[in-house]
Amino acid sequence: MDFDLKEHQQMIKETARDFAEKEIRPVAAKADEEAELPEGVLGKLGELGFMGMMLPEEYGGAEFDCVSYAIAVEEISRGDASVGITMSVHNSLVCQPILDYGSDEQKKKYLPDLAQGKTLGAFSLTEPEAGSDAGNVQTTAVLDGDHYVVNGTKIFVTSGGKADIVILFASTDKAAKTKGLSTFIVEKGTEGFKVGKKEDKMGMRGSGTYELVFENCRVPKENLLGGEGDGFRIALKTLDGGRVGVAAQAVGIGQACVEAATRYSKERKQFGKPICAFQAIQWLLADMATEIDAARFLTLKAAFLKDKGLRYSKEAAQAKLFASEAAVRAAINAVQVHGGYGYMKEYEVERHFRDSKLTELYEGTSEVQRMVIAASLLK
Fold first, then answer.
1. Spatial separation of the C-alpha atoms in residues 377 and 379, rounded to whole Å
2. Contact indicator for 337, 286 with CB cutoff of 8 Å
3. Cα dihedral across residues 113, 115, 118, 123: positive or negative
4. Rounded to two decimals, what is the model's pTM?
5. Of the four, 23, 35, 178, 328, which is 20 to 30 A from 42 by CA?
6. What's the Rg (C-alpha) of the chain?
7. How many Cα atoms within 13 Å fall on the side-chain side of residue 120?
8. Domains of the chain (ranges plus CATH)?
9. Dihedral pair phi/psi, residue 133, rounded to 5°
10. DSSP 2
11. Which residues are catalytic, by number?
12. What mean pLDDT is predicted for residues 80-99?
């Protein structure tokens, strides 16, 4: 087994880290306070090829492998997790399903601008009564001539208020439950589609999370992604890839915590010596570094399997489960190393502490990941 990064992967790592250090990290606290992404950051990510990383060159993509994508998401998230999740959703949950299930016309129409960061995408599955239970989706899509008439409300939509297109899941046959779920591409400005409230979140504040409302929204039937009834299958496959992105994001948060805590432990002095000289602090740092390294390897393993065209549902769930929980533990320990200062917004670990928790919740809670893992073992 080769643990060395390939030349192009090392280049991506260095490029992403340099961009995060110069363009993202210095304004992360401001983005958190103002609940807005840094101005122009998504366009710059597009110029670097990071908004269409796994798309073919024919659609304007960078045509990189999933391992490269995971590396880039980690480094960007190390600078600011809000930018990282925006990039992850755009790549994994928007570009990928259009590439996998879209018609030639849909790919040509949407992918080039998405790949270059000229347009932004969102993924809309969750509803007030349908979180982990996707079969309980209440949003409906009824065919009426050349259009589907969509009615319903979606919640917790990352980038929903800023997105130019939304990957929407709605029921075209409620009696069939999961087998009646279908997927649509809905464009911003479509009649009957409006943005509801923006959520006031604890963490990941730079990434906007919105409610989306559909009232007799007429979506052209050529915007059906895949066929009627394919929605549940599309959602499951798409979320597998999304979990690799979230795992990489969690690793980035955890790595930022390791580095911040290590740096502070060398600077902070108590009882006449830096606190890194005390075994209690050393053990906290050791646990953090070990768990984040383990999380990184799980994440890269899932990405590697995806690149090989092999099944990776279990591995993606394992990576997402372990990396998210490791990130939370790393954030808690980083605050502990900082003592009272760790509770103050002046120090970045306070933001990492708030940001880390969300990685355990979205794109499937930790409990859902355990369900996926157990199901793969028991089948």
1. 6
2. no
3. positive
4. 0.96
5. 328
6. 21
7. 23
8. 7-119 (1.10.540.10), 122-229 (2.40.110.10), 232-378 (1.20.140.10)
9. -90, 80
10. -
11. 363
12. 98
